[in-house]
Design a protein that fits this description.
about 35% helix, 3-stranded mixed beta sheet, two-stranded antiparallel sheet, binds flavin-adenine dinucleotide, alpha+beta
């Protein structure tokens, strides 16, 4: 097999390696750069994100039409490897979960209004997002299709959602949320995704736990 990378990916890979080495690793050394969950705190993160964006090392995963660099899945595999040399790496390049996957989903499935309201702020770095799926046992984890307990029921023009979720990365700072809930007992098509903004009425974050 030929494992040679496209020259453009190779160039991005080298530039990311240098950026991680010269700008991110030194910050990783600083105890004061960490938040309570041991990740990079906002004070140190924002300048690094601004610098990465300025240098064009930003949002590689999306098509160019959506503000990305369109490097494809194989390209992303090579770039993730370089970014991940530091725990702080991916988020500096707007390539960290859950924003990474949420942007890909919204780019593929959201309508134009939803893209403007929910996707663009994540792409331009002004908003973060969260993905609300996992539940405590016996709820959804590795097998959300079969085990999802959270139910959403339509009442008039509103949806009432009942369930218990946990492990929701970034929920404390996110503005854009995608919540997965059961809307029917159909084994293949029973789950729906609900897209909402932090400022939308009708929900609140009840508890935040940082994992040591
Ligand atoms: C750092 C971190 C961040 C996370 N962020 C998010 C988030 O933002 N949003 C969110 O919704 N969730 C998040 N999660 C949760 C994560 O997606 C779940 O932990 C994961 O899906 C596994 O589910 P579970 O923990 O319930 O394990 P379980 O599904 O209970 O699995 C336990 C073990 O059994 C194994 N297993 C399960 N089913 C099978 C099977 N059929 N065959 C063989 N082995 C099996 C698994 O591999 C695993 O080893 C996060 C988790 C971590 C650790």
């Amino acid at each position: 097999m030929d494992f040679t990378l496209d020259p453009q990916i190779e160039e991005y890979r080298t530039r990311i390696r240098d950026f991680v080495e010269n700008h991110i690793m030194p910050v990783e050394e600083l105890p004061q750069a960490r938040d309570e969950g041991e990740n990079i705190n906002e004070e140190y993160l924002q300048p690094l994100r601004a610098k990465a964006r300025e240098e064009g090392l930003w949002c590689f995963q999306l098509p160019r039409s959506a503000g990305g660099q369109e490097v494809g899945i194989v390209g992303m595999a090579a770039l993730y490897e370089e970014m991940q040399r530091s725990l702080f790496g991916p988020v500096c390049f707007n390539a960290a979960a859950p924003d990474d996957g949420n942007m890909m989903v919204l780019e593929k499935l959201a309508n134009e209004d939803q893209k403007r309201r929910f996707l663009e702020p994540i792409v331009n770095g002004s908003a973060r997002s969260a993905f609300i799926m996992t539940e405590p046992a016996p709820g959804s984890g590795s097998d959300p299709g079969g085990m999802m307990q959270t139910r959403a029921v339509k009442k008039g023009d509103r949806w009432i959602v009942n369930g218990h979720k946990w492990f929701i990365t970034g929920a404390g700072v996110a503005e854009v949320f995608i919540l997965i809930a059961r809307t029917s007992d159909d084994p293949r098509n029973g789950l729906s995704a609900f897209l909402f903004h932090r400022d939308d009425p009708g929900w609140e974050l009840v508890r935040r736990i940082a994992i040591d």
